[in-house]
Structures are given as structure tokens and as C-alpha cells.
């Protein structure tokens, strides 16, 4: 009787020990799986940037066989300083039309002329920015993410992007900070004076 009791106790202890080890292994696996690496964050940021179509405006393009193609070495470099723009009819713009440059990096409308920002990792892009600055751009539409600056000009759809979560913004920022630096000081926007007040 005493011998079978010892066997029963030993068996129970073994079962409890195995169960505890399995639970610890599961907890470790879950903790490891739930903590994304920096590489995971960058990869997810790249997916978000593609989904948000940031390259349509922020990457210079050339005409290829299927239409405009991103110039890989200028990816995310914004409107290139000194790049020529085709002439346009000012009367058309004054009539209320909005015009895009052929590579979508500049836009002219009633507000004036805007140029897309360099969002590459270069110091002339967002290389020196903090994540808080980047968040302020997307959440508040502040130029360069700084207080007391002008609002971001069209076509930047920051009003839509402000709905991104903090985590998503952080992932986008991590990816852009990992991109190839493109040295390019984007031209200053030409802002028209506001229209006179309605009578």
C-alpha cells in the first residue's frame, strides 16, 4: 500500500513538472512571437508605405514603356531641386484647375505651387527628424512636423493619414528611416496670398 502511494505521488509530481515545463515553453514562445524585431517593424512599415501609395508623389519618375516609373536611385527623394517643369497656362489655374507635374512631384493650384518633400533617410529628408515630428506631420498637418509652421499643402492627404494608429505611424517612420538616403533640398513652395474676403 505504502509502495503504491509513493508511486502515485511520484507520478503526480512528474506530471506536474512536465506540465509546468510545457507552460513555461508556451509562455516563452508567445512572448517571443509577440515582440516584433526591428526588421519586422521595417518590413511592416514598407507594406504600409506601399498601401498608402507614398511613392506616387514622393518618388521622382521617368517615362517607361508602361508610363511613369520610379527612378530607383531617387526613391522617396521628393521633387528634385533644379528639375525643369513644363510651361502651363496661368489662366487655366486661375479658373480653378489643378495641375500635376508629369512625375507627380509638384502640383499647381489656387493655393500656389507645392513640391513633394524628400522623405528619404538623408539629412535633407527626414534623416534628422524625430518620430514625434513625423507624427505631427501626419496628425496635425504641420510642415516638417514643427510648431508655428505653415500647414502642409495639397496634395498631401494628411487628413486621411491622421487616422493611422501610433503603432502604424511608428512602423512607417522606421521604414522611411531605413531607406537609401537621397541628398536633395526640395524647392520652397510658392504660396499665393489668400483670396479677398467675400462681400
UniProtKB/TrEMBL annotation:
<keyword id="KW-0349">Heme</keyword>
<dbReference type="InterPro" id="IPR009056">
    <property type="entry name" value="Cyt_c-like_dom"/>
</dbReference>
<dbReference type="GO" id="GO:0009055">
    <property type="term" value="F:electron transfer activity"/>
</dbReference>
<keyword id="KW-0479">Metal-binding</keyword>
<dbReference type="GO" id="GO:0020037">
    <property type="term" value="F:heme binding"/>
</dbReference>
<dbReference type="InterPro" id="IPR036909">
    <property type="entry name" value="Cyt_c-like_dom_sf"/>
</dbReference>
<dbReference type="Pfam" id="PF00034">
    <property type="entry name" value="Cytochrom_C"/>
</dbReference>
<feature type="domain" description="Cytochrome c">
    <location>
        <begin position="40"/>
        <end position="180"/>
    </location>
</feature>
<keyword id="KW-0408">Iron</keyword>
<protein>
    <submittedName>
        <fullName>C-type cytochrome</fullName>
    </submittedName>
</protein>
<feature type="signal peptide">
    <location>
        <begin position="1"/>
        <end position="25"/>
    </location>
</feature>
<dbReference type="InterPro" id="IPR051459">
    <property type="entry name" value="Cytochrome_c-type_DH"/>
</dbReference>
<keyword id="KW-0732">Signal</keyword>
<dbReference type="GO" id="GO:0046872">
    <property type="term" value="F:metal ion binding"/>
</dbReference>
Amino acid at each position: 500500500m505504502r509502495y503504491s502511494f509513493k508511486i502515485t505521488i511520484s507520478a503526480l509530481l512528474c506530471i506536474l513538472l512536465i506540465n509546468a515545463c510545457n507552460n513555461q515553453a508556451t509562455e516563452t514562445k508567445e512572448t517571443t512571437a509577440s515582440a516584433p524585431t526591428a526588421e519586422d517593424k521595417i518590413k511592416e512599415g514598407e507594406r504600409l508605405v506601399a498601401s498608402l501609395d507614398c511613392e506616387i508623389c514622393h518618388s521622382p519618375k521617368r517615362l517607361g514603356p508602361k508610363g511613369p516609373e520610379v527612378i530607383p536611385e531617387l526613391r522617396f527623394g521628393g521633387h528634385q531641386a533644379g528639375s525643369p517643369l513644363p510651361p502651363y497656362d496661368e489662366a487655366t489655374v486661375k479658373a480653378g484647375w489643378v495641375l500635376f507635374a508629369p512625375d507627380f512631384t509638384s502640383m499647381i493650384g489656387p493655393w500656389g505651387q507645392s513640391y513633394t518633400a524628400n522623405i528619404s533617410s538623408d539629412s535633407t529628408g527626414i534623416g534628422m527628424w524625430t518620430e514625434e515630428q513625423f507624427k505631427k506631420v501626419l496628425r496635425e498637418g504641420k510642415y516638417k512636423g514643427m510648431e508655428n509652421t505653415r500647414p502642409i499643402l495639397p496634395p498631401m492627404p494628411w487628413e486621411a493619414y491622421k487616422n493611422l494608429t501610433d503603432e502604424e505611424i511608428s512602423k512607417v517612420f522606421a521604414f522611411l528611416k531605413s531607406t537609401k538616403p537621397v541628398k536633395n533640398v526640395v524647392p520652397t513652395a510658392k504660396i499665393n496670398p489668400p483670396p479677398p474676403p467675400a462681400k
